[in-house]
Amino acid sequence: MEYVIAVFIGLLYACGVYLILRRSIVKVILGVFVLSNATNLIIFLSGGIQRGGAPFIPEGAETVDPATISDPLPQALILTAIVISLGISAYILALKYRYFDVTGTHDLDQLKNTDQR
Amino acid sequence: MNNIILEKIARLFLRVIAVMSVLLLLRGHNSPGGGFIGGIVLATGFIYYGIIFGSDRIQSIIYFNTRIWMGIGLGLVLVAAVIPVFVGQAPLTGLWYIGEWPLVGTMHIGTPLLFDTGIFVGVTGLILSVIITIMEVLKWNT
Amino acid sequence: MILFALLLIPFSYLMLGLLIKKSGIKQRLALLFATVNFLWALALVPIVQFREIIVVQMGSWAAPYGISLVADRFSVLMLVVAAFVFFLTTIYATQSVDKARRKNGHFFFSFGILMGVNGSFMAGDLFNLYVWFEVMLMSSFILVSLGGERQQLEGSIKYLILNLISSLFFVAGIGLLYGKLGSLNLADLSQKMASATDNLAVLNPALILIFVGFSIKGALFPFFFWLPASYHTPPPAVTALFAGLLTKVGIYSLVRFYTLFLYYDHGFWNEVVLWMGGLSMVIGVIAASSQYDFRKILSFHIISQVGYVVIALGFFTVAGLTAALFFLVHNMLAKTNAFLVAGWVHRERGTLNLKVLGDMFNKSPVWGILFFISAFSLAGLPPLSGFFGKYLVLKAGIEADQIFITLVALFVGLFTLFSMVKIWMEVFWKRQPEDIAQPAPINLKPANWMLFSSVVMALAIVGMGLWAAPIVDYCQLAAEDLLTPSKYIDYVLGYH
Asked: Boundaries of each Na+/H+ antiporter MnhB subunit-related protein domain copy (chain B) (predicted)?
């Protein structure tokens, strides 16, 4: 299972890199989203994959064998990363909207006005 | 949209979702759940309501401006973080008060619940503020 | 609590900023909270001198499992200087930033930056460092684009995308490191790396990813493009705040990461860092000398100055790290002040194009002298702070037998002087060109509070030059702490 997910992460990274190299800003933004999801999957994979072992100590027991449960920390980290990317997505889309309002273009090549002429 | 069935369902749906989100908030300390998820669930109820009735109606239900709600959420988090300092513990330490209550029996009340309530209110406020802004931009007021 | 308060102060401001509607009250509260934050950070100095490393375990969870806030001498130094810069830029912003921006949350988001900065200076584990980075970045994204002018939007798109990618590098690195070592606490990770020295090579991908992430944040040589593309677009008060705080957080994290993780393989990394630092210095200063915009020249100089800090880190001796810390502090002050003066010029003349400007010294000799102090401090003239910064870097370089890079640093100093003299001649000294159309001034009201904050900053620069000895001593103690990671580990994990 790890290998499948690893290959999948690689594919996502390829898609993301392809998208952020495009000229349209919308595609660049989509590329960033894809890349951030791929990164979240890396964190998920880093904790190891465990089938069906929720990280809870059963009622009545004092301890639990760490080999039988999944690592809760990466999941907490992913949750945090997802919340952060929620905020960033909202902001970046608003920024794109405003940019389109002001300039009427999607083209990254039109972004040269702030560079030195 | 003027559809009596949708309107009835939306009203009912919001109430059911509200109860469910509070349930998720409360059971978050021993079972899956918590303030963040509760807040998101509540916000989805409001989104459904807003799609049918428009963002003005959401605003009139939640009474305060969404930023006030976010502020209240942050305030609750702040209080929950600071309370342990006054009893000589490190900030954010979970403190519990276990007491007998009429009707419900033994109940644990603690600062983590307060913290989660803050997250609950803050997340709801945040998502609603995003939704209301988008609806205003799209002029989605039926 | 003593450390937690530094997060609490900006957090309470954020809460009150959401609850209170009147922008006049918010502005007064911002000044109050910035003052309190500065005083609190200052109060940490004697405590850290006495206790060496302050550790707070949040939520009473013990170190490798919980979240720790750690402040050693280096962190406290950065906290104090950041609080000082923040305090003065807040005063400055009350007059410099226009009313609409202040009403739409200029102070709110600058406190967001302060919270992120304070948090990253105290973060005791990698993931929290990432979270505080994001807090800081989110606020800075909004500050860059607040106002929504066309230029700003373009600058902020570049700034946003490149910084997001750097965060992704950083998180991917954290994920890989966690997968290999199973911990996130900086001290715990460092200890695990110390005991696993034989197969450090498997960690290299993770370390390189994190290193690249920090380098993008700190605007080092091949990764600096976001900085000159965006820093000249927002209002000058915002640029001053960014110049003082943002890249410096990247450099802080790089130093922390270097002394805790790359320490175990520093033979290899010293070379990398020296090359990157040297190239940043040279490229930054050459690019700056070809620019004709006040703020763009200064932005490119940020890159070049960061290079000095990084080569001093690459010498990897106590003297080198002392020089790096001293230079970092000097750079935060002098750079911010140069941008503060740029803000005044922008306010008076409505433009920052060197070809259009002229004759500003006659208009206000005081501001002229303020620019003189900060610019020639950056160029390294005695008795200003920059002289001692450069002197320490060069001395450490010669002692570490890195003659070539030391010579490069000397030449870069010459070019810095050239750029600064260029600004001085073009903006302050030459006659106003009469054949070029002049844009309208933005605001002609007297700028007393702007002047006040710039004067205080200039006094700090001069003071840092005249009384350099105690600061150098403090930096040396901090550098010694940094070069013995076992001390950090002992304090954080509670072996002490």
From this structure: 5-128
Structural tokens at position B71: 């502020």
Going by DSSP bridges, is the β-strand pair C67-71/B105-110 parallel, antiparallel, or unpaired? unpaired
Contacts of C60 in chain B (CB under 8 A): 84, 89-90, 93
Bin B139: left if φ > 0, else alpha if -120 < ψ < 50, else beta: left
> Per-residue DSSP letters for C162-227?
HHHHHHHHHHHHHHHHHHHH---BHHHHHHHHHHTGGGGGGGHHHHHHHHHHHHHHHT-GGG-THH
Distance of alpha carbon C25 from alpha carbon C29, whole angstroms: 6
What pLDDT score does B31 carry? 73
Using the 8-state DSSP alphabet, how is residue C426 labeled? I
Kindly list the partner chains of chain A, i.e. chains with 3 or more CB atom pairs below 8 Å.
B, C
Express each pLDDT in A40-83 by its tens digit: 998 888 877 777 777 777 777 778 777 778 788 888 888 888 88
- Mean of pLDDT over chain C: 89
Asked if B81's CB is within 8 angstroms of C60's CB, the reply is: no
B137 CB near a chain A CB, below 8 Å?
yes
Beta-carbon separation of C171 and A91 below 8 A: no
- Using one digit for the tens of pLDDT, what is the confidence trace for C55-106? 888 888 887 888 889 999 999 999 999 999 999 999 999 988 888 888 888 9
Residue in chain B lying closest to A83 (CA): B36
Torsion sign, CA atoms C130, C136, C139, C140: negative
Kindly determine whether residue C19 and residue B78, on different chains, have CB atoms separated by under 8 Å: no
Instruction: Please give the average per-residue pLDDT across C101-117, as a whole number.
Output: 91
In sequence order, what are the residues at sequence separation of 6 or more whose Cβ sits closer than 8 angstroms to the Cβ of residue A101?
A: none
Q: Which CATH number fits domain A2-50+70-107: 3.40.50.300, 1.10.287.3510, 3.40.50.720, 3.30.1460.10?
A: 1.10.287.3510
How many independent structural domains does chain C possess? Answer: 1
Residue A114: predicted pLDDT: 61
pLDDT in tens, B46-100: 988 888 888 888 888 888 888 899 999 999 999 998 888 888 888 888 888 777 7
CA-based nearest residue in chain A for residue C175: A43
Residue in C12, C16, C60 nearest the CB of B89: C60
What is the C-alpha separation between B119 and B75, in angstroms, rounded?
10
Partner residue opposite B75 with nearest CB, options C15, C56, C60: C15
Query: CB distance from B130 to chain A under 8 Å?
Result: yes
Query: Mean pLDDT throughout C4-15?
Result: 92
Cβ separation B94–C4 shorter than 8 A: no
- Asked if C269 contacts C377 with a C-beta cutoff of 8 angstroms, the reply is no
With the C-alpha atoms ordered B30, B36, B40, B43, is the resulting torsion angle positive or negative? positive
The partner residue sitting opposite B130, judged by closest CB among A79, A83, A90, is A90
**Size (chain A), residues:** 117
Tell me which residue has tokens 């009427």: A104
Q: Which of A86, A93, A97 to mutate to test the interface with B (most CBs of B within 10 A)?
A: A86
Chain A residues within 8 A of C156 when measuring between CB atoms = 95
- pLDDT band for position C120 (50/70/90)? very high
Under DSSP, the state recorded for C437 is: P
Give yes or no for a contact between B130 and B46, defined as CB atoms under 8 angstroms apart.
no
CB count in 10 Å sphere of residue C400 = 20
What stretches of C20-72 show up as alpha helix (H) in DSSP?
A: 23-51
> What integer pLDDT is reported at residue B1 of this predicted model?
59
> ipTM value of the model?
0.91
Rounded CA gap, C34 and C31, in Å? 5
Q: B82 vs C18: CB contact, 8 Å cut-off?
A: no
| % of residues, chain C, pLDDT over 70 | 99
